[in-house]
Amino acid sequence: MTKRRCPHCNSAVDATTLVGEGTSAPDADDVNVCLYCAKVSVFTAYGLRLATDIEAAEFEEDPDVQLAVRTVETLILKNGLNDGL
Ligand SMILES: [Zn+2]
Questions:
Q1: 9 C-alpha to ligand 1 centroid (Å)
Q2: How far does residue 8's CA lie from ligand 1's centre (Å)?
Q3: In the chain, N or C: fewer CB atoms in 10 Å?
Q4: CA atoms lying within 13 Å on the CB side of residue 77
Q5: Chain centre to alpha carbon of residue 50
């Protein structure tokens, strides 16, 4: 998989995990939740882009996206706690 960068935090996104239905390889317009900042972006053919205002509003209403964001936030929090021990 080609290296993509999160448009929010600029972290390299070099692996994806499928949430919901579809194929594991991301297609253009698939949603990405960054594993480093838990922010939502959208796959393009070549990388990731910020969601449009309309898309962002849709993601706020999408239970699958919200669950993915909460899951990533929990992972980030747990990792942060573990780093502190
Ligand atoms: Zn990020």
A1: 4
A2: 5
A3: C
A4: 6
A5: 11
Report helix angle 53-61 to 63-83, nearest 10: 80
The pTM assigned to this predicted structure is 0.81
In this predicted model, what pLDDT tens digit does every residue of 16-43 receive, in sequence order? 766 666 766 788 999 999 999 999 999 9
pLDDT digits (tens, 9 = 90+) for 38-62: 999 999 988 999 999 999 999 999 9
Domain count, the chain: 1
Q: What are phi and psi of 14, to 5 degrees?
A: -115, 10
Position 85 confidence tier, pLDDT thresholds 50, 70, 90:
low
Question: How far, in Å, is the centroid of ligand 1 from the Cα of 33?
Answer: 8
Going from the Cα of 81 to the center of ligand 1, the distance in angstroms, rounded, reads: 19
